[in-house]
Amino acid sequence: MTKLPFHEKIGYAMGDAAANLVWRGALAYLAVFYTDTFGLTAAAAAMLFLVVRLSDGVTDIIMGMIADRTNTRWGKFRPWILWSTPFLALFMVLSFTTPDLSYTAKLVYAYITYIGLTLAYTVNNVPYSALMGVMTPSDTERTSLSGFRFAGAFAGGLLVMGFLPDLVAYFGDGNDAMGYQYTMYLFAVLLIVLMVTTFATTKERVTPTIDESTNLKSELIDLSKNLPFIILPLLAMTLFFYYRDIYSGAFFVIVMGSMWLVIKKLINTTPEDLGGTKRDMVDLLTNKPWLILLGMGFITMLFNGIKYGTIAYYFKYHVGSEVLAGKYFVVLLLASILGALSTSYLAKKLGKRKLFIVSLIISGILTGAFYWVPQGNLTAIFVLGGSAEFFAAIMPTLYFTMLGDSADYSEWKNGRRATGLIYSAGTFVQKTGGGFAGALVLVVLAGYGYDGMDKSTIEASLPGMQLLMSWIPAAFAFAGAALMIFYPLTSKDNQQIGDELIERRMIAPTT
Fold this sequence. Notes:
Blueprint lengths: L5 H33 L3 H27 L9 H18 L7 H33 L3 H34 L3 H26 L14 H10 L2 H16 L2 H22 L8 H10 L2 H32 L2 H29 L1 H17 L9 H37 L4 H29 L10 H11 L2 H14 L6 H17 L4
Helix pairs in contact: 1-4, 1-5, 1-6, 1-11, 2-4, 2-8, 2-15, 3-4, 3-6, 4-14, 4-15, 5-6, 5-12, 5-14, 8-9, 11-12, 11-14, 11-15, 11-16, 11-17, 12-13, 12-14, 13-14, 13-17, 14-15, 14-18, 15-16
């Protein structure tokens, strides 16, 4: 077992602290920035979130393939962290900049900058997430590393969500547009420092056998021929979610039914008749642990994303203090750090599957209880929110370490390991879930008549905010707990698979 040094775990954690300057900032404040400062309608912002986030599906998969086939003296994944950092910092600033343009031009600008931000995040975060899978072959060390990672993530989120309103007020002095822009300058500098630290302090140790039967160019051509099978389901999901009428419903059923037939045919095809890309896809589609985790990534991101996307609205209008939202985020993220750091210990006691289920149920119950909190009862809001967040923080910590387990399972079962592809799909469903979460918040608010530029619409939208903070996200938590019952890998299975893979790698060629 390769035990990672403490300084390397801290260095790896700094990468997610940096990423969450973007991820948590965009998730928590970009919606309210678009509607209340930038000037977009809630409906237009909802469609923006859906279209841009779902388009990440293609780029995530491509990035996972590229990262898997990258070979440098620094490794497969670490170089991409370094190369992508300047672009990530640049688009973070541009996304929170308000140019003096017409409404239509502003909408176009929002699409361009948000697409740039998500693309830069993909190039940075897919390799960063996959790096965990090759830093150590030990599943217990990956669980510990995941705890450090998400402690770092929540610390980065603490800075953004806890202090962004104060920084906007300080730098803007009454001009929110300027305040957001100058705050992002500060965060961009910090992001660069943290990402460079991660690159400099981490090391790749797991070197899987390289499949030299195909090259990246041929596999990208192969992938391009199959893009409709990726794009059509995403389009069907988006149309059905946004329009919710009989036509979009029929299109959704037809597309998903067709996809099922195609997938069934692929699975029944012999490996010799499949190209490299299709073989990777079939390996994933027959990987039960990965398929369940794919659903869990989407569901848990909806659960967490809806709550985080509502907080700024809830405190601004339901509580009546926008500054208190920052203080609430501080409480949540302190609880998140404790939850992330407790995950390794609790997983050893309960096992990952049972701990995941328990966390979902308890966090769902505490979140649902928000529905009965009287307006303005800050004690109940802070106590319930902090308690629910402790258990909610365990979910992403377990999720990414279990993706590493599913990569081990794939290599053990099929003799092929596509770590980057497995993690890219994992980050994709999280982005998709985040996109749907942000869009759902805006769709519900729009359904209650909310218009950020018209204060007369606020009172009627308060019940919608209350549901978005309680039973709507809680429903996804309970659905996730039900799905997780079917996860097949136990701690004993992971140990056995890990031991067998170590033996195989000792005798297998690596070039």
